[in-house]
Amino acid sequence: MSVVVLSFLSPFLIILLNSFKTSDDYRAHGSLSWPAHWNWGVIEDVWQRTDFTQKLLNSVETSLGVVVIAVALALFNAYALGIGRVRWRTAFLVFFLGVNVLPQEGLVYPIYYMFKELGLYDGKLGYTILVGITYSAFGTYLLSSVYSSFPRQLIEAASLDGAGRWTILWRIVLPMSWPTLSVMCVFFFVWSWNEFLYPLVLLISNDNQTVPLGLASMQGQYTSDPTAMGAAALLGVVPMVVFFLLFQRTLTRGVTAGAVK
Question: All domains of the chain, ordered by start, with CATH?
Answer without folding.
Answer: 15-28+37-256 (1.10.3720.10)
